[in-house]
Design brief:
The protein is an alpha/beta fold and about 350 residues long. The protein contains 16 helices and ten strands.
Amino acid sequence: MSDLGIVRGRVAAGYACSLVFATAAALATAVSTAQADTKVRYVEVVRNLAYLPSYVAFAKGYFKEAGLDVSISTAQGGDKATAMILGGNADITLVGPETAVYVWNSESPEKMKIFCSLTGTSTNFFISRKKMDPATFKWSMIKGSTVLGWRPGSTPELFMQYAIRKNGIDPAKDITDVTNIGVPARLGAWMSGKGDYAIFSEPELTRIEKDGKGYPLRFVGSDVGQVDYTLFMATDSYIKKNPKIIQDFTNAIYKAQLFTKTADPAELGKLVVKYFPVVTVQDIANAVLRYRKVGLWRDDPVVYEKPMETLQDILIQGGAQKADKRVKYSDIVLTSFAEKAKATIH
């Protein structure tokens, strides 16, 4: 073979070898991309700073690290979020625990299971239109007033009513409880003068304070106590078919919970401000301090039995559940995913 032929042979061999390596690298990249492209349709009940750890999970890349491509939508109500889950239009939801109870007692063949907790009690503050010193506020002052509540049967409404009853006020007789205003319209209704008192959480509370339209008097959770308020759940069939997705999702949330517990409030504000275009980084930092002070966020993802029993007491007392329809804890709660996250993530 001539020298030219030898050179051509070597070049061809080198090209073939490069092609093999390039093909192998492309295949490896494709496999890696496929593994990181497990799509999850996640729907939250409302957009709320009280759910800050969930936004941290996105912003810090914890879902991506777990190999999940999580999309987020906002339902504007627990009933709507539930309809999306049961209708197959979402996979995982963050919603009030009453949802799992209602679905269990319904005729729906599909049931919902709670697998991870986020907030340990009500996210709402009870506010007044008139400025007053919170130290002098007594629940008896609201008798005869109009209170802007939430949709009947929802956790915001039921927890508020529970707090009021604990303080000797009958919400059915002693106040005018407005419950027929949709979630997106509540802020506008309050700003335009509807109600003497109301319940709001962040970021709406900060906007109300900035405009001098309301003043926080009490954190509702202080009167209710520690009862899981917003939790992650999915249908029983989805969890059975996708246990790895549920575990990876729970792991990501738990990482976010641990980070949220100790991170600088301003850093948290910078991380999640893109999810709240109407507020500033400083507004978020202030909300973090406010919520930390009242112990809102869980740093333990496990949903325990006693709070779920108290939840059903609240539902029964509020007329949203019949006493003979109490649901077993094991029928609506799965603890294995949260327990594994606690055992493996530090």
